[in-house]
Write a structure and sequence with these properties.
This protein is of the alpha+beta class. The protein has 4 helices and 12 strands.
Length: 203
């Protein structure tokens, strides 16, 4: 994938490199924690509507945790109200928690979508919305022209079970359902480093 030098170790270069996204994160509750890291860009802080969350500048690169420990499978809902297993059994799966009020989530999504398209024959992407009404999520997805497969966590039970407190949070699972890594904060999924994370799910 683009946004940097081509992927090494026989990996395919990304066909449509994207500019590097600005990094950041949203928290469910305010926190004084501030990160530092590489890259250029402005730090931004803004209080989201009705005190929902405080968008804080996370590390300029998302915080990546390898071997993050157990993440019990659960069931999200699709827009028809059907229950969908998270993660999907038998296939490498990337689960991304997001919300429409989270600016870093919105900035990150185009590179996440491009990554999922590039590896569509090898993995499944599940973009899980946090506690928003299905109709509002559908309007947001349509207005944003997103093509990612969106699921719903209407009560926040999935996020709570996985201790998700920062948005976006993205977890990569191998085909056996084992979590291999967890990224907290906005990440450039078109980068070579992201390619190594993703391809590690089946290597």
């Amino acid at each position: 994938m683009g946004g940097g030098p081509g992927l090494r170790g026989g990996s395919r270069p990304h066909p449509n490199p994207l500019p590097q996204a600005g990094e950041g994160a949203c928290r469910i509750t305010p926190s004084p924690l501030r990160g530092e890291g590489w890259g250029e860009g402005l730090r931004r802080r803004h209080l989201l509507g009705a005190g929902l969350a405080l968008a804080l500048p996370a590390a300029r690169a998302a915080q990546i945790q390898t071997n993050p420990g157990a993440h019990a499978p659960w069931q999200a809902l699709d827009f028809e109200g059907r229950k969908i297993a998270v993660p999907m059994a038998g296939r490498p799966t990337i689960v991304n928690f997001w919300a429409s009020w989270c600016e870093p989530c919105r900035v990150e999504m185009p590179t996440l979508q491009q990554m999922a398209d590039f590896y569509s024959d090898q993995l499944v992407l599940q973009a899980v919305n946090f506690k928003e009404r299905a109709s509002a999520v559908q309007r947001h997805v349509k207005a944003s022209a997103w093509l990612v497969p969106v699921l719903l966590d209407p009560l926040g039970e999935g996020a709570q079970g996985w201790n998700v407190k920062v948005f976006p949070t993205t977890v990569g699972f191998d085909a056996q359902g084992r979590p291999r890594w967890r990224a907290q904060g906005e990440y450039d999924w078109s980068s070579a480093e992201a390619g190594k994370l993703v391809e590690g799910l089946w290597r």
